[in-house]
């Protein structure tokens, strides 16, 4: 992965997706460019996220730091500190 793409990754994980950011990122680091990257295990906000950046959902997590932030809000609202939840879905999900 190029240093430029790593920089986009770093910025996106901190600023999320302000207007126009996704379009800019797609120009330089589209999901297709991650075809050779295997599954990643990433930590965001104290959570573990297992994802594949070549898949659109995984790409969003890798480049913007989150996907379905409303699920994160639900987890935080219903889980006690140290509680565990696993989002079992068809593709990728949160582990807490």
Number of strands: 3
Shape: globular
Distance between the termini: 28 Å
Give the H and E element order: HHEEHHE
Average of pLDDT = 78
Percent of sequence in beta strands: 5-15%
Question: Percentage of helical residues?
Answer: 40-55%
The Rg value, from CA coordinates, equals 14 Å
Biggest sheet descriptor: 3 strands, antiparallel
Q: Can you tell me the residue ranges where pLDDT is under 50 for at least 5 consecutive residues?
A: none
Can you characterise this structure?
The longest helix is centred in the N-terminal third of the chain and has 13 residues, at 3-15. Helix 1 (3-15) packs across helix 3. This protein has one domain (3-95). With 96 residues, the protein is of the alpha+beta class. It is built from four helices and three strands; from the N terminus they run ααββααβ. A three-stranded antiparallel sheet has the order 1-2-3, covered by helices on one side. A hairpin with a 2-residue loop joins strand 1 and strand 2. 42% of the residues lie in helices and 14% in strands.
